[in-house]
Amino acid sequence: MNLHTPAQQIPRPPCAAPDAADPFAATGEPLRWGVVATGRIASNVTEDLAGLEDSVLQAVSSRSQDSARAFAEKFGFSTSYYDDDGVTGYQRLFNDPEVDVVYIATPHAQHHEVARAALESGKHVLCEKAFTVNAREAAELIDLARANNLFLMEALWSRFLPSVNRAWEIIHSGELGEIQWVQADLGFPSDHGSTHRLWDPAAGGGALLDLTVYPLTWALGALGFPAAVTAAGALNDDNIDTQNALTLSYEGGAHAQLTSSLVSSGPGQATVSGSAGWLRTGSVLHNPRELTIHPHQGEQRVETFEQAGRGYVYELRETTRCIQQGLTESPTMPWADTLNTMRLLDGVRNQLGLRYANDA
Q: Where is this region: Disordered (predicted)?
C-alpha cells in the first residue's frame, strides 16, 4: 500500500506545563467537564480528571440511569444524564450550558456520532482513540471543529507521557545516529466474551483499532509517516482481526515492524535502532516506566520515570491548557496526525479485507 500523505510529520513533544513536576496544577481558569460513558476507561481517566485543580466535574452521561447516577456519585459530578423519552443521555449532556468540554469514552464505532453531536452543540471535545472508524469520519469531525472554532483532540495518552517524550528527545538528538528500524509489539489473549466490544463488529472491535495505535506511535515518533505499508493478519468468523502484522517502509530504506494481537501475548516493548545505537522501552510500550539506551560508543544506561496519577493527566493537562489558550488543536496531537493515522489504518484494512458497518 502506497500512502499519499503530506511530507513526513515527526511528532513533537508537548509544551511543558508551567510546573512540569505537577501536571495537576492549574494553568488557567477552570473548565467544566462532561464525560460520555461510564465504562472502565472512562473511570480510569476520570480519576485523573478529578485531580486537576482547574477542572470541574459537571456532568456524566450513560444509557442507563443507574450507571449514570452511580458514576456521578462515585466521582462527585454535579449532574447525571441518561437515555430518556427518546433523547440520548449524551445529547442531554450536550444541551447542558454548564458543560464546556466533553471527554468521549464510548466504543470506537460511536465516536463519530457522539463527537459530531458534541461539536454541533458547541462543546470542545477530547475523544478516545481510535479517533473514529475510518478517515472519512475523522475528516468530517475535523472540518466541523474548524468551522465552529472548537478544540478537538484524539485522546492518545501515550504521546503525552514523560517517558515517551524523553524517548523521542533522545531519538531526535542524534545520539542513536540515523534511525534505520523500529520494532514494536502489543498483545494479550483476550478472554472477553463475544459480546464484548473487542469482539463486536458493530463496535469496531479487533486488534487494529484497539491495540495497533500503540506500536504505531513508536514508528511515527521515530520515523514519521511511511511511504508504504504492507499488512498481514487473521480474521475470525465475525470479520474481526484477531491479530495483525505491519511493515512500514520509508524513503531511504528505513523500516518498522509492528505486531498487535488479541490471541497471544508478547513482551510489549518497542526498540528503536539507529546507526549509532539503540533504545528499548520497558514493558509495556504504551506506558513505559523505563528506557534502556545503548550507544555503540559509550556506556549503556537506564532511565526511569515517575508518573503522575494514572498517566492520563498529561493528555488532560494538554487539553485544558489548549482550550484556556484559545487553541483549536494541540501542537502535540495535531489534526493532521490523527487524519493521516486513520488513512493508514484504512489502507491496512483494505489489505486485510476488514470492513465495518460505519464504512457504508
A: 1-23
- Together in a domain, 175 and 250: yes
Contact 223, 165 (CB under 8 A): no
Could you tell me the CATH number of the domain that includes residue 60?
3.40.50.720
Say whether both 150 and 225 belong to one domain.
no
Contact 40, 67 (CB under 8 A): no
Parallel, antiparallel, or unpaired for β 101-104 and 152-155? unpaired
Question: Structurally, how many domains does the chain consist of?
Answer: 2
Domain that includes residue 283, residue range? 162-306
> What is the DSSP code (8-state) at residue 15?
P
The residues pairing with 258 across neighbouring beta strands, listed in sequence order, are: 184, 246
**Phi, psi for residue 40 in degrees, rounded to 5:** -60, -50
Angle between helices 135-148 and 111-120 in degrees, nearest 10: 10
pLDDT, one tens digit per residue, over 153-198 is 999 999 999 999 999 999 999 999 999 999 999 999 988 777 788 8
285 with 170, same domain: the answer is: yes
Query: What residues have CB less than 8 Å from 47, skipping those under 6 apart?
Result: 75, 309, 310, 312
Bond preceding residue 130 cis, omega within 30 of 0: yes
